[in-house]
Amino acid sequence: MLSIGQLVDMQWKLGMAVSSDTCRSLNSPFVSLLLKIVEPSGQICQRAFEMTIPQFQNFHRQFKEMAAVMETV
Amino acid sequence: MADVEVTKSLSGLLNGIAQMVYYNKREITEELLKNELYPEMPLEEFKALYEKMKGLIKSIATADMDHAQLEAFLTAQTKRQGGIGLSAEQAAALSRFWKSQRVRVRGSLLAQSRWEPSLRGLSWRVDLQTGDSYGNTVHRGPVALMELELGRDGQDSEFVCLEFDETKVNQVLKKMADIQESIDRIVCHT
């Protein structure tokens, strides 16, 4: 069973991966999100993840759709 | 071995190395490649060939060589003296290999360079609570539930479930608009 948390805060960072030991020319932008979540127990936890630009744009679109649905109900 | 066989074994070896190094196929091993592709070659000789090809693929992949860079690189390698020089067949096989695998290898390298978990999927649902167990009618605004599927390259997913009311959704949307604005400023469009 998954517990449902509530978002307390969201921090973001837009970065550009430039080069690494395995690839000299990465040149790939990414969005990192750090979510601060309060769990049902009251405990606060943090979750971080990264997205490519297309992944972020899909995430953004889904959020907009969700907001639109909330307005109609 | 006939020429066709040599070419076949070589491209099999290059693809096998890519499977091991870039595509996380753990069932492919050096020993398997030796037995399947070069059963008659002495082990020492195979090891040298394997290491040589692996090193060359790594150099090509790390620099993400385009066609011209690759040709120049391979030409230089064929001119090296002694046992370390590349044969014409080997150069041709590497050229063919890279042409077909460049995009995929690059994709794999990009994935490997991400150290935080990535967003693998998300699903959401909007609920309206209309009553409670005491028989009361409840007039609370709609609530959105969102499940995020997160995971590191090559690892199992982890799920994070969140609940949002309208205020929270709008706060997040505002931040997302800020992110999009920054992307538009910095990134030449994707």
From TrEMBL, chain A:
> Molecular function (GO) terms listed?
NF-kappaB binding
List, alphabetically, the InterPro entries matched: COMM, COMMD4/6/7/8
Q: Name one Pfam family in it.
A: COMM_domain
Domain COMM stretches: 6-73
Report the transmembrane regions from the record. none
Q: What's the family?
A: Belongs to the COMM domain-containing protein 6 family.
Query: What's the stated role of this polypeptide?
Result: Scaffold protein in the commander complex that is essential for endosomal recycling of transmembrane cargos; the commander complex is composed of the CCC subcomplex and the retriever subcomplex. May modulate activity of cullin-RING E3 ubiquitin ligase (CRL) complexes. Down-regulates activation of NF-kappa-B. Inhibits TNF-induced NFKB1 activation.
Q: Which PANTHER family match?
A: COMM DOMAIN-CONTAINING PROTEIN 4-8 FAMILY MEMBER (PTHR16231), COMM DOMAIN-CONTAINING PROTEIN 6 (PTHR16231:SF5)
Protein's UniProt name: COMM domain-containing protein 6
Which species does the entry assign this protein to? Crenichthys baileyi (White River springfish)
Automatic annotation (TrEMBL), chain B:
Q: Please, which domain of life does this record's source organism belong to?
A: Eukaryota
An example Gene Ontology cellular component term from the record? endosome
The record, for CDD domains, names:
Commd1_MURR1 (cd04749)
Sorted alphabetically, the Gene Ontology BP terms of this entry are: copper ion homeostasis; negative regulation of protein localization to cell surface; negative regulation of sodium ion transmembrane transport; positive regulation of protein ubiquitination; regulation of proteasomal ubiquitin-dependent protein catabolic process
Identify the InterPro entries for this entry: COMM, COMMD1_N, Murr1
Pinpoint the COMM domain residues: 118-187
Q: What family does this chain come from, according to its entry?
A: Belongs to the COMM domain-containing protein 1 family.
Q: What is this protein called?
A: COMM domain-containing protein 1
Species of the source: Crenichthys baileyi (White River springfish)
